[in-house]
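Re-run with default settings, no changes from the original entry. Doing this only to confirm the output is reproducible before filing.
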Amino acid sequence: MAVVTEVRFAHEDGALAHTLGELPELDARIVRESSTNPKQNVYYLRVDYPDPSRVTTVLDADHSVADAWPMPEFDDRGLIAVEFAADAKLVGPHVTREGGLVVDARSASPDQEPRGWHERWLLPDREAIRAVWQRARDEGFSFTLLEFHRSGRADGTDKGVDVLTGQQRRTLAAAYEQGYFAEPRETSLQELGEALDLSASAVGGRLKRGMKSLIGETLVVEGHRE
């Protein structure tokens, strides 16, 4: 059964290690591209900091970053594209290799030493968590498992996200990561469609079918709707 785990980790050569150390007030959230390619090293970073130019300057000096460029077309969202250096230590690719998804990735709170990342993952099973944890520890990460639970009902009779097709799972994950379910909404069906190379109607259909499947498995008890 699929599991959801919340973790915190850090590495001196990890993603944005220098930047997070230099800018303790920086709030950063990674918006992953919809691709599931474990070799991907370009990410979109949503940053919240009083002086955006300072963020760019510090990123330029960050040894984990090969290149970084602001995205002026998204100035109101504070988006910066970041290409990580080939030797940067990243955990996300390990999650992808185990068939999982990084549902949420954000900078850890400033009081954490060393400061790193706070993430939520969706993985196929406990063995996948162990595999990711072992690879991270072998590479020298400090790693803390904050929360772990099965997806679905507590009695374990529910298949939860296992009822989703791969297309539905990727679409729901992309919608969550890009703020479609946020209030106020941070993206549109049209924008999601462009990111996923789909029409807005196709994205809407996948979201509706995926949510219907999840609701049917998690909120409907013995055929009766509450």
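The longest strand covers residues 142-150. The CA atoms of residues 36 and 209 lie 21 Å apart.
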